[in-house]
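Long-time lurker. I teach an intro course on protein structure, and each term I like to show students one example going from raw sequence to a predicted 3D structure in token notation. This year I'd like something fresh instead of my usual example. Would anyone be willing to generate the tokens for the chain below so I can use it in lecture? Attribution to the forum is fine with me.
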Amino acid sequence: MAITREQAEALIQEQLIGTIQQKTPEQSIFMRLARKLPNMTSKQTRVPVLDMLPMAYWVNGDTGFKRTSQQAWDNVWLVAEELAVIVPIPEAVVDDASFDIMGEVEPRVIEAIGQRVDQAVVFGINRPSGWGADIITRARQAGNNVAPGGAPDYFDLIMGENGVISKVEEDGYMVNGTMAAMGMRGKLRGIKGTDGHPIFKSDMQGSTQYALDGAPMYFPQNGSFDATIAQLIVGDFSQAVYAIRQDITVKILDQGVIQDPTTKEIVYNLAQQDMIALRVVFRMGWALPNPATRVDEDRTGCPFAYLEPATAVTTKTVTFTVKDNAGTPAAVAGAIVDMNGARLKTDASGKAVFNLRAGTYEAKIKKSGFGTVTETVTVATAAVTKDITLIPNA
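-- Reply from a regular --
Happy to contribute to a lecture. Here you go:
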């Protein structure tokens, strides 16, 4: 009688494929496109930024008086914030594994760092308190958000006179990079000319490098792009800067305890439980200096713009009303309200209105000839109003 497979199952060795099926880890798209500054030597790095441009005036006649002008600079700060994670693994698991577990974990942790950087810088997701407002928030306050409408024409929304690219150009910048949700690829391929033929690609065989008006286009696959906030983001990425305080540092721990961050209870005792832990640390800062230009002397514009999803993300209005300290307070027009780097100028009635997502923001209100006022604004479920009194300098 023949020996069946079931009878010999204990003697049959399973084949183990020598590779793990997985995608290559994705890096930060923002850090690929933005301008890298020299590494930081302390927690804060100061970047001087042009804040006021000098003016020139025509002289009235041969004996007319020549007028004076000023130039001023402001400080923009890069604050190093830390990303870190600890991955504990029993030593017995490492010894018995057929793969280099630590070697498999490390690139995935680095991918997670890139994801967190892109989420915080671009969308403000889990933004560290020391960082300024994210790119989406700044673009929205500058009016650089485009709604798709009921029957969207994506060619006009992107390339047209009031499209996202034009929004950036009207603020004095040239688009040199684009980030988009994966769903945007299908929308681009579906754009057709008046004759019904696709205009995105001339043939169906050659490879396609996605680009908009000559600017390369990236579709982040690290899970960072939030399609509920934007479908597509365009901008002059050379205006965004970042610096590294501590490059990605990997350390293997075999001593010590790991506590729960919330309860402070000891979760693992590495020595007692024969465990090791992979600890990864990364520190960086970023800024969008937005210097004064002849096109945007008040620095209220933004080098980025974005296309909203069909249902725009919910925001709440934050209204500042700025007046002086006279017996009968008068509205202060032309005051700058700086909300974590997003800037607006008060109108004739002394008002500046922001549209912000939930969170806590730091605001600075200033005007030449007055003292600067600092306010903390918390946005939750209702509109916020702030009455500000500026006191003239002595």
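Some talking points for your students: The domain at 316-390 is CATH 2.60.40.10 (Immunoglobulin-like). The first helix runs from residue 29 to 33.
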